[in-house]
Amino acid sequence: MKPDLHAEVNKNSAFLDRELSQLMFNRRVLAQAEDKSIPLLERLRYLCIASSNLDEFFEVRVASLLAAGAADGTLSTHPALVATLSRISNECHALVSHQYELLNTEILPEMAAKGIHLVRHNERNDAQRAWVKEYFDTEVRPLLTPIGLDPAHPFPQVVNKSLNFIVQLGGKDAFGRGTGIAIVKAPRVLPRVIRLPDHLSKNGGISFCLLSSVIHAHISDLFAGREVIGYSQFRVTRDSDLWVDEDEVKNLRQALKGELVGRQFGASVRLEVAKNCPPELSQFLLDQFGLHQSRLYAVNGPVNLVRLNEIMDHVENPELRFPPFFPGFAQKQVNQDIFVALRENDILLHHPYQSFQTVIDFIRSAAHDPSVVAIKQTIYRTGMNSDLMESLITAAKLGKEVTVIVELKARFDEEANINWADKLEQAGAQVVYGVVGLKTHAKVALVIRREDKKLRYYAHLGTGNYHPTTTKFYTDFGLLTCHPGIAQEVNEVFIHLTSLTKPHHLTHLWLAPFALQNEIIKAIRNEARIARAGRPGRIIVKINALVDESVIRALYAASKDGVKIDLIVRGACMLKPGVPGLSENIKVRSVIGRFLEHSRIYYFRNDLEHDTYLASADWMSRNLFRRIEVAFPILDKALKRRVMAEGLSPYLKDNQNAWELEPDGHYQRRKARGKQATFSAQQHLMETLGTPNGHLGD
After folding, report:
1. Lesser CB count within 10 Å: N end or C end of the chain?
2. What DSSP string runs through 107-135?
3. Binding region
4. Which of 441, 467, 483, 666 is catalytic?
C-alpha cells in the first residue's frame, strides 16, 4: 500500500480510518503466509484465512457502506462515502494482487518441491489428462446445467460466493439462433480440490487439480456444434447481513429462517473473474450485477482461495504443519467433583492452553447431578455439533429448569442457533431470543444447586464463545466461581434478559448497554486523577478492536495527564498512538500468531488495587451500546497475577509475532534487537500451560 494512504485520510483527524485499519489486520495475517519460518501448509492456511477475512469484509463492511449510500439517494450524493469506497478499493486490489503473487511465486512452487502438486491443465501429462477427462464425463458433466441466455432463459440467480462460468459462443444454436452467452454453475456438491490417483503423481508425491480447472478444460464439451470464443470462471460476493425489522415481526425465529434463504442473493458488492477473462464478458457481468468497474477483481488463479484449505485434508506430512499441541488442565485432579473444587477456590481457565473440557464437564455434571435444580446459559456461537448443548438437552429431559438465551442473529451462525433452539424447546427447555434490537453477546452460564436446604449459585463467565472448535484455536479466558456476589449477579442478568425488566444495581458486573461504557470511562478517568496527583497511573487493555470514539477520547485525556497506557488490539484500531500532545503515553500493538487472539482484558492499576476485568466486549460502539455484554472482575489476588502473567505481560514482551502501530496507521513488526532473545507470547504459554504429548501426569 502507498505510504501516504492513511496520512491522506487522517492527517487532520484524531482518529484512524476504521476500514483501512481493518484491512491492515489482513495485511498482518498475510505476512504470516510470507513467513518462511512457519511450516508450509500453515502458510497456505494463513493465505486462506486472509481470503476468508476479505470475503467477510466485503459481505459486511463494504455492503453496509453501500447500503448507507443507497438509503437516501445515490452514492454520488455522498462524496465522503465515495472517497472512502475508493480508498477501500485501492487497498483491496493491492491486497488481492499480493495474495495471488504469493500463491503463485512462493507457496505453490514450494509445495511442488515438497511433492504436493496443484496441476493446471497445460501442465498435465497424457495420463493425467485422460483421468481428468474421465472424471469430468462421469462425475461432473452429468451435474452441470449450461444455460444459454435468451428471453426465455434470462440471466440466472447466482448464489453468494459460488463458482460459476461465463461462456461466449459463436455460431448458431440448435434452433438456428445466435445466442452468444451461456452461464454454467459449478455443482456445490462436488469438491473444489480433487486428488488425482497416486500412480499419476511424480516421484511418490501427491497431485491435485481444481474443479474449476476440470470444467475449464472441457467446457467446449458442453456446447456441441458451437465455437467457444471466450470464457471465464467468476464469483460474486453479496451483502450477507440479515435485514429483519424486529419490531414488526411476531416470530423472530420464523422470520430469520426466511431471511437465511434470501441471504444467498443479497445485493452484489464484488465480482471476481479470471485474469484472462475477455473484457466484454467481465463488463457484461458487471452490468448484470449492477457493479462499478472498481469492484471488479481479475485474479491470477482460482476465484476462491479459501477452497485451497481442502488440500490440507489430504496431506499428512507433519513437517509441513505446526507441531501438535495438547492443552493442560485447570486442576491436578481432573476427576475431582467440580462443585467441591469451586467451593474451595475459583478456577481460571486460559484457552486453548488449558482445555475447554472443564467447562463441558461443568455443564454435564450439572445436567446429571440430582442436587442441581436449574441451569441457565447464553448461546452466541456454538456450532452444529456440541456436547455442551447436548448436556443442556439432557438436563431438560431430566426435569431440570433449563433456560437458554439463544442469539438468533449471530452472523453466519444463525442456522445452527435456530436448529439448537428447536431441539432445546422440544426437550422442554425455556428458550429466549434475547432483547429486541440488541444482540446477546455475553458469555455466561449459571448452575443453581440445592445444598443443605439452601440454593447455591455456580457460574461460568467467559471472554469467548461456547464453541467446541474455536476454543481450540482462539485465546480466551473463563472463570468458574461460586462467589456469592458474582454468581447471584449473573442470575440477575438472566432475569433481566428473560423478563425485560431493568436489572438490579450490579456491584460486581459491568453490563452493557446500561453501565459498561460508563464504567470503562470512569476507570480511565480514575487513572488520570491518580496521575494528576503525582502517583503512577497505568492501564493495560487487550481487546480485538478499538473504534469507539468516546473511549478513545478518554484514553487521549488520560495520556495527557501522564497515564502510561498499553493497548493490545488484534484488529481494527482507530486510536493514533504516540502523537505529541495527544497520545505520547499510549502504545498500541497487535499480535498475530498460531492462535487467534480473542480474549478481552481490562487492567487498571488503581493505586495498587490492580483492578482486573475480563469481558465479552471489545471497545466498539456496537458492543457498548447495541449488545448485551458482561465484564466481570477477577477478585482473587493469585488469579489476578495469573491474568497479568498469562494474558498481558507476555504480549508486551513479544518480539516475534507483535506489530506496533504507528501514528499514521501503519504497523511495523517488532523484532529482537541486539542480544535480545526472541520471545513469542503464544509459544511461551504453550510451553508453560500445555501438557507434553497429551499426558495428564500425576
Report:
1. C
2. IHHHHHHTTEEE--GGG--HHHHHHHHHH
3. 53, 381, 411, 474, 570, 598
4. 441
